[in-house]
From TrEMBL, chain A:
Protein name, as recorded: Peptide ABC transporter permease
Localization annotation: Cell membrane
GO CC entries: plasma membrane
Topology in the lipid bilayer: Multi-pass membrane protein
Domain ABC transmembrane type-1: 95-324
Source species of the chain: Carboxydothermus islandicus
Pfam families attached to this UniProt entry: BPD_transp_1, BPD_transp_1_N
TrEMBL record, chain B:
Protein name per Swiss-Prot or TrEMBL: ABC transporter ATP-binding protein
Localization in the cell: Cell membrane
Alphabetical list of SMART domains matching this protein: AAA
Keywords: ATP-binding, Cell membrane, Membrane, Nucleotide-binding, Transport
Recorded GO MF terms: ATP binding; ATP hydrolysis activity
SUPFAM superfamilies reported for this sequence: P-loop containing nucleoside triphosphate hydrolases (SSF52540)
GO terms (BP aspect): peptide transport
Assigned protein family: Belongs to the ABC transporter superfamily.
Gene source species: Carboxydothermus islandicus
Lineage: Bacteria, Bacillati, Bacillota, Clostridia, Thermoanaerobacterales
Highest taxon in the source lineage: Bacteria
Length: 334, 329
């Protein structure tokens, strides 16, 4: 097992190498450069050339890339061309917002998705099954920005129950520790701010969680239907176990493997930043951060962020693969 | 002798796409305490559905027990609530299945699956339950029982898994054990071991057993009495010696003729011509009529009753005359 983990971690090296290379090439091949963004279109050519030289943009591409790699190996992602802040430092403020949103979205998606999938499978073809699967189909098909707007309209505008945007109301401020507001407010012992942060989190988490929730519900249902037909389920019933035990213990654990795969993948996707959701809810997350960096051709930010996100994505998948062995003893890695 | 189980006119039908499939249609038999009863018949004859009906584990929908009585220890199981039935399953009546490879849950240890039986039915402490489990595994011939408790099913061979299933089924010393083709999926040598083990445990515990099989060799080896089924109906019910020495129903005769014997010099086996009928579309009269070599006109029209002869019960018009004579004298 340790061998396996070490091998998987070693595999990270070529993966990250490939990703940094691709990102680097793509961002340099799209037309436009940061100089135009910084100086505006009407800047004098002399001034532009000077700045280009300053930023090292006149070096050949391979040289720029090697420089980036060299810095990366020293744990340095460079500075933003636009803000002159360290990329790592900026990520440390934007990324936790995305993490918090993702965790909340995946929590809703997993709990509701699995529950709906289990009930739908146990009561196959019932009204609940039909209704929840129709809901799941709608969920995966709906554009997130539209769903987000509708949620804001209903819960913020019409009902006024929840705030429409941002992470915290302006009247609250809490010292930054983790930049996960739910945790920071608790650490500060500020209960009112905690409730405020939670209220701000609900709508974007719902919007973002809808697609994973739908996929998880459908996957859980089909996996459960498959498992409920198995002989060992009949054995469990023949032992005199109650239905709850049969379904929640004997069936669900077996049915969980494909669901876990989906949860892991979705988790990774969401951590990459949800531009739509973050834009609609003015959520200062990494998705919007990268989007703005791409628009400004802020090369170090784009490269640095994507490298970090890729790293996390691969690590999450490794964790999922390890969790397989916890759930199914037949899976063993050499 | 005390009757532990009496099944009377049991009817279990399946409903799929508007069609009624009479998987079990009027099965009647009884089982004495300590007796081993064989139920034989080919695939689709309703053996397994009969046993699942007794456990009330027929998948529903599409299946439904539509009639009859199942009297177990003086109580009609069909009248019990699901909750009362759960107390019977695993404790009073337990079951082992055909395929030990798939009958154990792959993601739980043997210990977890064995102890569950004690946990659900008896309020045993974990330590006591564990001790009992080890004792059981030793009894069914699993070496290093203590160590093997921590193993998962995939770490056992087929024969060993069936031993675990038997241990699980006998854990609470049930009055009745239903074994649904317990050796079909196993190698011949392992089959013999498992049958020997079941016989030995049956003697020790005095458990009554219903042995469902399509292997007449197993019946001859194990059973006291035999019920032969065809197309969801009972056709002949007799003492094992009587049945093998003097089969009367044409289907039973056909079955016995189709087994190879060591002391015979036949070139070919004698099969029963034709194939079993479609249960959704049974002939009006006797279900075996299209394949029967003794058929009469009445057979295609009238369903034969399952009636009592001096030495057996039988459903065949051939013996109607005998029945009438017996009634007249």
């Amino acid at each position: 097992m340790v061998n396996y983990i070490v091998r998987r971690l070693l595999q990270l090296i070529p993966v990250l190498f490939g990703i940094t290379f691709l990102t680097f090439m793509l961002i340099h091949f799209i037309p436009g450069d940061p100089v135009t963004v910084i100086l505006g279109e009407h800047a004098s050519p002399e001034r532009a050339a000077e700045l280009r030289e300053q930023l090292g943009l006149n070096d050949p591409l391979y040289k720029q890339y090697l420089k980036f790699l060299n810095n990366l190996l020293h744990g340095d992602l460079g500075r933003s061309i636009i803000t002159h802040e360290k990329v790592l430092k900026e990520l440390a403020t934007f990324f936790p917002a995305t993490v918090e949103l993702t965790l909340a979205a995946m929590f809703i998606a997993t709990v509701v998705g699995i529950a709906a999938g289990v009930v739908a499978a146990v009561k196959q073809y019932s009204w609940f099954d039909n209704l929840s699967m129709l809901g799941a189909l709608t969920g995966v098909s709906m554009p997130i920005f539209w769903l987000g707007l509708m949620l804001i309209y209903l819960f913020a505008q019409v009902l006024g129950w929840l705030p429409p945007s941002a992470r915290l109301s302006i009247e609250y401020s809490v010292p930054t520790v983790t930049n996960l507001y739910l945790i920071d407010t608790l650490l500060a012992g500020n209960w009112a701010a905690f409730k405020d942060a939670l209220a701000h989190l609900i709508l974007p988490a719902l919007a973002l969680g809808t697609i994973p929730m739908s996929i998880i519900a459908r996957m859980t249902r089909s996996s459960m239907l498959e498992v409920l037909r198995q002989d060992y389920i009949r054995t469990a019933r023949a032992k005199g176990l109650g239905e709850a035990m049969v379904i929640l213990k004997h069936a669900l654990k077996n049915a969980f493997l494909p669901v876990l795969t989906v949860i892991g993948l979705q988790f990774g996707y969401l951590l990459g930043g949800a531009v739509m959701t973050e834009t609609v809810f003015s959520w200062p997350g990494v998705g919007r951060y990268i989007y703005q960096a791409i628009m400004a051709r802020d090369f170090p930010v784009v490269q640095g962020s994507i490298t970090i996100i890729a790293l996390i994505f691969v690590l999450i998948n490794l964790i999922v693969d390890i969790l397989y062995t916890v759930i199914d003893p037949r899976i063993r890695y050499q | 002798m005390e009757k532990i189980l009496e099944v009377k006119d049991l009817k279990t039908y399946f409903y799929s796409s508007g069609k009624e499939i009479r998987a079990v249609d009027g099965v009647t038999f009884s089982l004495n305490r300590g007796e081993i009863l064989g139920i034989v018949g080919e695939s689709g004859s309703g053996k397994s559905v009969t046993s699942l009906s007794i456990m009330r584990l027929v998948p529903s929908p599409p299946g439904k027990i539509v009639g009859g009585e199942i009297i177990f220890a003086g109580e009609d199981l069909l009248k019990l609530s699901e909750k009362e039935m759960r107390k019977i399953r695993g404790e009073k009546i337990s079951m082992i299945f055909q395929d030990p490879m798939t009958s154990l849950n792959p993601v739980f240890t043997i210990e977890e699956q064995l102890l569950e039986v004690f946990r659900v039915h008896k309020k045993l402490s974990k330590k006591d339950a564990r001790e009992k489990a080890i004792e059981l595994l030793k009894k069914v011939g699993i070496p290093e029982a203590e160590k093997r408790l921590k193993s998962y099913p995939h770490q056992f061979s087929g024969g060993m898994r069936q031993r675990v299933m038997i241990a699980m089924a006998l854990a609470l010393n049930p009055a009745l054990l239903i074994a649904d083709e317990p050796t079909t999926a196993l190698d011949v040598t392992i089959q013999a071991q498992i049958l020997a083990l079941m016989k030995e445990l049956q003697k020790e515990y005095g458990t009554s057993i219903i042995m469902i099989t399509h292997d007449l060799g197993v019946v001859a080896e194990m059973c006291h009495r035999v019920l032969v089924m065809y197309a969801g109906r009972p056709v002949e019910f007799a003492d094992v010696k009587t049945l093998f020495a003097n089969p009367k129903h044409p289907y039973t005769i056909g079955l016995l003729n189709s087994i190879p014997r060591l002391n015979e010099q036949k070139k070919r086996l004698t099969p029963i011509e034709g194939s079993p009928p479609d249960l959704g579309n049974l002939p009006r009269g006797c279900a075996f009529y299209p394949r029967c070599s003794f058929k009469q006109e009445v057979c295609s029209e009238v369903k034969p009753d399952f009636r009592e002869l001096p030495d057996r019960k039988i459903a065949c018009h051939l013996y109607q005359g005998v029945l009438d004579d017996a009634a007249a004298s």
